[in-house]
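Section 5: illustrative case.
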């Protein structure tokens, strides 16, 4: 059938328009609602107007069928500065599209949504277009050109000039050079204004102690604390202090010209934060790569020394700095090999059979274990025993004959021998170690020669360039016409059917309740389905599970109906809940809002999915020793914040396992803090006019003495003993002296029968130094005299080994007047 001339002209102009719109979109134009990019080998990215940055699907290294939705330097294609979907690649044929309500939507070839910007989207109206700008920031704008979402507010592992890191913001390292999922290392601007580098547990996300800190927390004065991290357009990185001063992170002599150089700051997968620059003139600098001008820390092998981590490298590994740079290199010691052969920075496992202590004697007689000599190598945080004075020969012999000993390190200067247990952590090789040692290996003919450093060659992966070819002119006009018609219908439909602002308002996420929110009783009644699902009941009232928000992003909350509340005026009640609402700490349950209507008082918290510490500790299965100790450390940090670090000092008054909740990662979160002032004096499990629960109450409650933060320290000491022993403080099923845990714990400590106290918990007994330390700390906390109980800050210092723990007196004795 012949086409009418008018149709042919229409098709021709349609083709031209689509080609022009394609060129505009790929080279500095807007990616508007309904338009999409596809993951194909010849797909074109969206370029910034200058052509410096590209947004789109970056072909994955070493696998041409996988793609990463990312932002990269268009002229330096192997330098990716931002990535979506938590760093997970997608298969060929996947697409990303802009929608009015969800923003960017990443879908697989079957059309299933994998990731979107819905959760990060601010309340700024419907999205109109996306724009890749010349700073490397991809922005979603509304019809009024307001930024609704931007990649700069959601960084991955890199900061670019003009980018700002607000309080609570963070960078996360990649897992490896070619694995973009989140790794072990973080750069975080904490709520107290301190910028820190820390490691984290990959399984739970738990943040370990910092290995770098800017110390800009104001030292108790919030006005002198850090407010935000600014990376200005000149490439100068600094912390803006709230008093309008600044803390420089980039040394003045390290600044390079922003006019002639690209710049970035990247947290490497090895935990080193580095400042980089690259000349913009490629013709004059052929073959030039990124140059590093500064790194933090100077030596991560020796700086990273948190107690509860593996170190810069994995377990049983050795870290050393590379030649001429500050990048760590990791290697396994003799007769150990990588647990994952593809992860050279991971943990190492013994290549020989590890006998238990019952079998060790037989193997030792057969000479199946040998000591291999070490020079300038140490695992400083794997100690379980110290021998002093001790000769070199005695150190060797002692480790050889001890089934628990995996390595021994000897200091000739003070004749000290440290015995190490598996897993060996924080391994390092450095001339500053200046010690000799021995590694015990099995089933080999060992040599007493020193270990020779093994320098691993860098593996450089070349990434395939992404083609910038536009759609070919051989596309069928019929297909273009059909596409134009479908696109026109789609746009007209969306224009006629926009989402209402009311629906958008209901789709709030938890992050949007950033301050205390006043709910109506009807809202909370609807959220809990008429207070139908009860999830807890205690001294403060009854807790119900509910959902706030509708549509695609409701979140679960816990609604607490208070009983027998005090009769203070509205102003005082709101003042108290406002104090609670201003608390922000990772070990506190987040307070979202409240309701005060007539005689109803309700509090709304985020919901904790793993119940209480009481359920966790006193169930049928005993949690691991490591998990239990992480819980008490989290509780201690939360109490320190309430006592000393938040804007208004808060005494909890009812610390017990039932009031400590566990989030989805089993992190401890203190609940019911700050409620003491909201309750009547007689709200208690005891018959006295005190607040708290029998068994956890400090003696001063009953002796008409002033109530201070030390009442929480006492309760924490009881809870610490319960966590160590996995049993309740008062157990009437046990006859005799063991019925009261606090009394029995001191008796066991005095008689050195800790194995009875922990019910032969092998994992705890293998960590006997820390077990004894934690029990001693608990006994100091439950001293009857509050003046000799430690503060929570001191407790944390004793946990970390920073402060010495003296031998505690009997808790009921008043003869000791000095603190631990």
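Designed sequence:
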């Amino acid at each position: 059938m012949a086409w009418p001339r008018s149709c042919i002209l229409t098709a021709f102009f349609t083709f031209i328009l689509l080609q022009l719109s394609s060129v505009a979109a790929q080279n500095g134009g807007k990616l508007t609602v309904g338009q999409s990019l596809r993951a194909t080998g010849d797909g074109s990215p969206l370029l910034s107007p200058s052509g410096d940055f590209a947004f789109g699907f970056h072909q994955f290294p070493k696998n041409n069928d996988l793609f990463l939705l990312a932002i990269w330097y268009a002229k330096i294609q192997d330098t990716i500065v931002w990535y979506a979907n938590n760093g997970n690649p997608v298969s060929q044929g996947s697409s990303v599209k802009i929608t009015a309500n969800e923003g960017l939507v990443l879908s697989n070839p079957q059309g299933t949504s994998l990731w979107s910007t819905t959760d990060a989207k601010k309340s700024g109206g419907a999205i109109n277009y996306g724009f890749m700008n010349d700073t490397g920031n991809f922005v979603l704008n509304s019809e009024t050109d307001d930024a609704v979402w931007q990649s700069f507010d959601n960084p991955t592992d890199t900061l670019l000039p003009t980018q700002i890191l607000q309080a609570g913001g963070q960078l996360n390292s990649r897992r490896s050079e070619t694995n973009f999922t989140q790794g072990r290392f973080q750069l975080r601007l904490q709520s107290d204004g301190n910028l820190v580098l820390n490691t984290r547990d990959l399984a739970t996300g738990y943040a370990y102690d910092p290995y770098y800190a800017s110390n800009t927390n104001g030292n108790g004065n919030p006005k002198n604390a850090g407010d935000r991290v600014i990376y200005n357009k000149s490439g100068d990185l600094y912390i803006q202090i709230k008093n309008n001063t600044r803390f420089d992170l980039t040394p003045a002599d390290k600044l390079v010209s922003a006019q002639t150089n690209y710049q970035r700051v990247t947290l490497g997968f090895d935990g080193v934060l580095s400042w980089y620059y690259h000349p913009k003139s490629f013709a004059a600098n052929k073959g030039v790569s990124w140059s590093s001008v500064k790194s933090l820390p100077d030596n991560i092998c020796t700086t990273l020394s948190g107690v509860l981590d593996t170190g810069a490298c994995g377990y049983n590994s050795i870290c050393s700095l590379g030649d001429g740079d500050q990048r760590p290199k990791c290697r396994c010691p003799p007769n150990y090999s990588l647990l994952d052969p593809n992860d050279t920075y991971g943990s190492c496992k013994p290549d020989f059979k590890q006998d238990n202590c019952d079998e060790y004697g037989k193997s030792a007689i057969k000479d199946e274990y040998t000591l291999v000599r070490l020079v300038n190598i140490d695992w400083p945080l794997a100690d379980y025993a110290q021998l002093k004075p001790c000769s070199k020969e005695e150190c060797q012999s002692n480790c050889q004959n001890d089934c628990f000993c995996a390595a021994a390190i000897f200091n000739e200067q003070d004749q000290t021998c440290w015995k190490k247990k598996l897993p060996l952590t924080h391994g390092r090789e450095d001339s500053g170690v200046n010690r000799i040692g021995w590694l015990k290996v099995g089933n080999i003919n060992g040599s007493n020669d020193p270990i020779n450093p093994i320098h691993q060659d860098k593996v450089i992966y070349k990434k395939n360039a992404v083609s910038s070819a536009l759609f070919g002119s051989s596309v069928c006009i019929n297909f273009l016409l059909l596409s134009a018609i479908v696109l026109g219908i789609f746009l007209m439909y969306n224009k006629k059917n926009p989402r209402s602002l009311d629906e958008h308002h209901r789709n709030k996420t938890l992050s949007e309740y950033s301050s205390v929110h006043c709910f109506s009783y009807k809202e909370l009644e609807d959220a809990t389905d008429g207070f139908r699902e009860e999830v807890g009941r205690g001294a403060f009232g009854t807790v119900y599970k509910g959902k706030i928000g509708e549509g695609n992003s409701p979140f679960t909350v816990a609604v607490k109906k208070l009983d027998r509340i005090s009769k203070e005026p509205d102003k005082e009640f709101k003042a108290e809940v406002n104090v609670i609402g201003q608390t922000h700490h990772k070990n506190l349950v987040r307070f979202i809002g409240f309701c005060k209507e007539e005689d109803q008082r309700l509090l709304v918290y985020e919901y904790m999915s793993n119940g209480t510490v009481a359920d966790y500790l006193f169930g049928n299965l005993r949690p691991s020793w490591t998990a239990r100790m992480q819980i008490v450390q989290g509780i201690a940090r939360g109490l320190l914040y309430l006592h000393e670090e938040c804007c208004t000092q808060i005494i909890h008054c009812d610390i017990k396992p039932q009031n400590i909740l566990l989030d989805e990662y089993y992190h401890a979160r203190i609940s019911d803090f700050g409620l003491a002032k909201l309750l009547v004096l007689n709200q208690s499990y005891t018959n006295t006019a005190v607040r708290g629960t029998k068994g956890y109450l400090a003696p001063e409650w009953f002796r008409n003495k002033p109530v201070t933060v030390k009442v929480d320290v006492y309760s924490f000491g009881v809870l610490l003993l319960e966590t160590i022993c996995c049993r309740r403080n008062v157990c009437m099923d046990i006859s005799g002296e063991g019925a009261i845990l606090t009394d029995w714990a001191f008796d066991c400590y005095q008689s050195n029968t800790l194995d009875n106290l922990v019910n032969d918990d092998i994992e705890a007994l293998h960590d006997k130094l820390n077990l004894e330390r934690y029990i001693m700390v608990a006994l100091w906390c439950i001293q009857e005299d509050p003046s000799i109980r430690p503060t929570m800050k001191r407790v944390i210092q004793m946990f970390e080994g920073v402060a010495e723990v003296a031998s505690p007196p009997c808790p009921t004795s008043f003869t000791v007047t000095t603190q631990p």
